[in-house]
Write a structure and sequence with these properties.
Protein name: Thioredoxin domain-containing protein
Helix content: 25-40%
CATH topology: Glutaredoxin
CATH superfamily: Glutaredoxin
Oligomer: single chain
Keywords: Disulfide bond, Electron transport, Redox-active center, Transport
Strand order of the largest sheet: 1-3-2-4-5
Number of strands: 5
Strand content: 25-35%
Order of helices and strands: EHEHEHEEH
Number of domains: 1
CATH class: Alpha Beta
CATH architecture: 3-Layer(aba) Sandwich
Largest sheet: 5 strands, mixed
Distance between the termini: 26 Å
Structural class: alpha/beta
GO molecular function, one term: protein-disulfide reductase activity
């Protein structure tokens, strides 16, 4: 299961080492619902060292504002606590995989 993050438990991503892939979404967002399985599929292909998670912007509006998440869905890839890449809109597992590969280099 992919963990959910809010303001109360996101510090491990912001201050952590390594690569983390975080999907920002909302329950009312139709493109988010339609593409959720693509992200879930991609996560199964990531190396074990890559952390993955989801942020419901309705439950974590401060995080959404902090990272300027205005359109949904959006996936942020963090490397050593800093935003490394941003992928907007529904995407395929291969797009996420390529971005994670680049972050691991």
């Amino acid at each position: 299961m992919i963990p959910d993050y809010t303001e109360s438990n996101f510090a491990g991503i912001e201050h952590g080492n390594g690569v983390a892939v975080i999907r920002f979404h909302a329950p009312w967002c139709e493109p988010c619902r339609r593409s959720e399985h693509l992200f879930d599929e991609a996560v199964t292909l990531f190396p074990a060292a890559v952390r993955a998670g989801k942020v419901n912007v309705m439950q974590a509006p401060v995080l959404a504002a902090k990272y300027a998440v205005w359109g949904l869905p959006v996936v942020l890839i963090f490397k050593d606590g800093r935003e490394f890449a941003r992928i907007s809109g529904p995407q395929t597992a291969s797009v996420f995989g390529e971005a994670v590969h680049d972050a691991l280099l």
